[in-house]
Design goal:
- About 15% of the residues lie in helices and about 30% in strands.
- It has 4 helices and 14 strands.
- The radius of gyration is 34 Å and the shape is globular.
């Protein structure tokens, strides 16, 4: 018929359908793999909580801290973890889940510590849960320290198992005429008013007395200062890292050190003492004039 158009439509065969599905699979499967890879990558990039079992000492003494959003200090526990030995840190009484603190008790705990990947804005970045109480000792609070007259080194009584080699410090300090204080390697300390004599806990963790020597009676709370310029023995308080330089070497002695001839030196000693003012260990160091 004139003007008529004829269209030939190929029948859909099984083979053509299979080819179509195969082509679709070639596109769909790679797309699915890429999507899965991106999902896993995003999941791996998300921060995760870090959970560890650690050992923790809890002091029989308490401290204070200022809670978040408050201007008033409150009483708290003092704890020391095995990965930060020698440093007592404040922790709230209810901050260790399933643990009840009793005053006058000294504890050694195994706890689960979780460092939060997304901590709350108004709270700590870590939580604690009790696993085991490894040790629980009742500590009898001592009476007020007696006013013992310490006029010589022989008057200082050492605590049980002391002296022992737990602490260390730089054995030589350098002072110049300008009042600059340096270590022997040239590293300069802060100014006289802000410098500190650093005391480091070097007791190895495999020492059989390690656990006992981390307890309060073996912590260096004070230092008796033996000076080459006076027979008087001074008592100074240590912070968590050691006493202030100006308390060990008062200004009049510092002036004498600065006036010495280059190469001259003065020898000092610190007898570390616990909270009961019993001796723990003797450390000696020299101050040399540059």
């Amino acid at each position: 018929m004139v003007g008529s158009r004829f269209f030939i439509i190929n029948p859909i065969t099984r083979q053509s359908l299979q080819g179509l599905f195969m082509n679709m699979n070639k596109l769909f499967i790679p797309l699915l793999l890429v999507t899965a890879f991106l999902a896993v990558s995003c999941s791996d990039d998300e921060p995760k909580d870090v959970v560890n079992e650690i050992k923790m000492s809890v002091s029989a003494e308490t401290g204070t801290y200022i809670p978040w959003g408050s201007d008033t200090s409150v009483e708290c526990m003092l704890v020391m973890s095995e990965d930060n030995p020698g440093v007592w840190e404040p922790l709230g009484f209810n901050s260790i889940k399933w643990f009840t603190y009793e005053r006058g008790h000294e504890y050694y705990l195994s706890v689960e510590r979780t460092i939060l990947a997304n901590p709350p804005m108004d709270g700590s970045d870590r939580t604690y849960s009790l696993l085991r109480i490894l040790e629980d000792r009742i500590i009898t609070e001592p009476e007020e320290p007696e006013d013992k007259e310490v006029s010589s080194e022989e008057d200082i009584e050492y605590y049980d198992k002391c002296p022992f080699n737990k602490y260390a410090m730089e054995k030589e300090l350098l002072v110049d005429s300008e009042g600059n204080i340096r270590y022997i390697d040239g590293h300069q300390l802060p100014s006289y008013d802000k410098a500190r004599i650093w005391i480091e806990n070097i007791l190895p963790k495999d020492d059989p007395n390690w656990v006992e020597f981390q307890k309060v009676p073996y912590m260096a709370t004070y230092s008796f200062v033996l000076s080459p310029f006076t027979d008087e023995i001074r008592l100074v308080r240590n912070d968590s890292s050691g006493p202030m330089f100006k308390e060990v070497i008062p200004e009049n002695e510092f002036n004498l050190l600065m006036s010495m001839e280059p190469g001259e030196e003065a020898r000092y000693a610190l007898i570390l003492a616990n909270v009961y003012m019993d001796g723990l260990q003797k450390l000696e160091f020299t101050v040399k004039k540059q």
